[in-house]
Automatic annotation (TrEMBL):
This is AI-2E family transporter. The keyword Transport applies. Residues 444-459 have a biased composition (Acidic residues). Residues 460-483 have a biased composition (Basic and acidic residues). It comes from Lujinxingia litoralis. The chain crosses the membrane at residues 32-50, 56-74, 86-107, 182-202, 245-266, 272-302, 309-329, 341-364. It is found in: Cell membrane.
Length: 483
């Protein structure tokens, strides 16, 4: 059988590529480039909107977060026969009272401790020079280099001169920060709008969820619902679990520091406040542990009563941190929904650098959603020709070429002439695709081609016989004209 080849205009003598080769060589690159460009523009536009309208979007996102976290409590009250509106008022009232009491209790003590640390810091430096360094040398047999003492003498004098001024103003730092007119106005607006938005979102939360489900295509309904439930488990339970863990740690830190401070004659109220602060700051992994340890040690050094207090502080924070890592967090948050501490720290830093406070608020929800979608993304990637190293089936080439081309009709005609469109199931039954875009066994293919060529030859002979036998008079007339 002679091979037939065709050429495009302007490409005389060059063989024409079939549909599969055209797609493999040229078609997928503009398609992939257009997808990357589209998602890049979409992501850039999203961050531009966040930065441009952050003042407006911030109270909305905060209200949505509060509504999302409080909705399960409202649903439980509603299941017990309490109307949804009444349940919303009860939950928000309790929340506002708790936050107000904590603020009134924490702020004065923290401000006093800040003033105390600033005022006693020069004495602390002197104590380090005269007591701590000699004690280290005597206890551990170390001879500290002279550069340490020189550095303490050099920078200690500068710090002593600066800290009295700082100590006079530490108590009024927060007050001065909110005395500006713009800050006061923005704070008042947010203080009013966030509760109103939260009430509205809580009232219509279930209705909005049902409206969102209506936009899901029916044939993908189950898949999308499963993914949304997984996202709710990964994000919602992480937030709620971290809040429960923070409350437990706040109680444990406060109790432990109160016992240690009381045993060594230190300010018990300072220990309670530092413990509560360290517990709630633990929403960011290890942040509460670091801040609480630093503040507790500074208080012990300022109100010095021996190294036993330092040892007690170390035991409290170390034991509570071990319990949190190996017992409390695994039981409350769970390994399935728990995000790794390093991941949380990294995404919070990235979110803050990209979009400020808005980025910090969105960092954990976006990370939780990506964690749920990653298995689907990897599964799709493992089916691509780039990963498998196998060309696409002719049916896939036909469909995707029609989607990405500008002149769909022309490509449709060309591809239909070179590759038969089949469903994926038909392609799988027929066998793997060959280089010329045909499927099935190669031997059967050659037999089919030889059989078809033989049938074409026989049909030509039959047609010539039929033409000659149709009109004998016409044949005699033609012979007479030739004579």
């Amino acid at each position: 059988m002679s091979e037939q080849s065709s050429s495009r205009p302007g490409e005389a003598g060059s063989p024409r590529l079939d549909a599969g080769s055209q797609w493999e060589r040229f078609g997928r690159y503009p398609y992939l480039l257009s997808k990357l460009l589209f998602f890049g523009l979409l992501l850039g536009g999203f961050f531009w909107v966040l930065g441009k309208f952050s003042a407006v979007l911030l109270p909305i996102f905060v209200s949505l977060l509060f509504a999302y976290l409080l909705d399960p409590a409202i649903d439980k009250l509603e299941a017990r026969g309490i109307r949804r509106g009444v349940g919303i008022v009860l939950v928000l009232t309790v929340g506002v009272l708790v936050v107000t009491l904590f603020a009134l209790f924490l702020y004065p003590t923290l401000a006093n401790q800040a003033r105390l640390i600033a005022d006693h810091f020069p004495a602390l430096l002197t104590s380090l020079e005269t007591k701590a360094l000699p004690w280290i040398e005597r206890t551990f047999g170390l001879e500290l280099p002279s550069t340490v003492s020189a550095a303490m003498e050099r920078y200690g004098a500068q710090i002593r001169e600066a800290l009295p001024t700082i100590g006079q103003h530490v108590g009024s730092v927060l007050t001065n920060a909110v005395t500006r007119t713009g800050a006061v106005v923005a704070s008042l607006i947010n203080a009013v709008m966030i509760p109103l938005f939260t009430i509205y979102f809580l009232h219509d939360f279930d209705r909005g969820r049902r409206a969102l489900v209506r936009f899901i295509p029916p044939h993908r309904h189950d898949h999308f619902i499963d993914r949304l439930q997984d996202m709710d488990q990964a994000v919602g339970q992480w937030f709620r679990g971290q809040i429960q863990v923070a409350m437990i740690l706040a109680g444990m830190y406060a109790l432990g520091l109160a016992i240690v401070y009381g045993a060594f004659g230190l300010d018990v109220q300072s220990g309670v406040v530092i413990g509560i602060l360290a517990g709630f700051l633990n929403v960011i992994p290890y942040f509460g542990f670091a801040v609480g340890t630093l503040l507790a040690v500074l208080v012990v050094l300022i109100q010095w009563s021996g190294f036993g207090a330092l040892l007690g502080v170390g035991i409290v924070f170390t034991s509570v941190q071990l319990l949190e890592s190996y017992l409390i967090t695994p039981r409350i948050v769970g390994e399935k929904v728990g995000l790794k501490p390093v991941t949380v720290i990294i995404v919070l830093l990235l979110g803050g650098n990209i979009a400020g406070l808005m980025g910090i608020l969105l960092a954990i929800p976006v990370t939780g959603a990506l964690k749920v979608l990653l298995p689907d993304i990897f599964a799709w990637y493992e089916r691509t020709s780039f990963f498998t190293g196998k060309p696409m089936a002719p049916a896939q080439m036909h469909v995707r070429a029609r989607v990405i081309t500008d002149d769909a009709t022309t490509w449709d005609e060309e591809i239909s002439g070179n590759a038969e469109t089949k469903s994926p199931s038909d392609a799988a039954v027929d066998g793997p695709a060959s280089e010329d875009g045909q499927t099935g066994d190669p031997a059967e293919h050659e037999d089919g081609e030889s059989g078809s060529s033989a049938e074409d030859d026989s049909s030509k002979d039959d047609s010539s016989k039929d033409d000659s036998s149709k009109d004998p008079k016409a044949d005699r007339g033609n012979s007479e004209e030739q004579d």
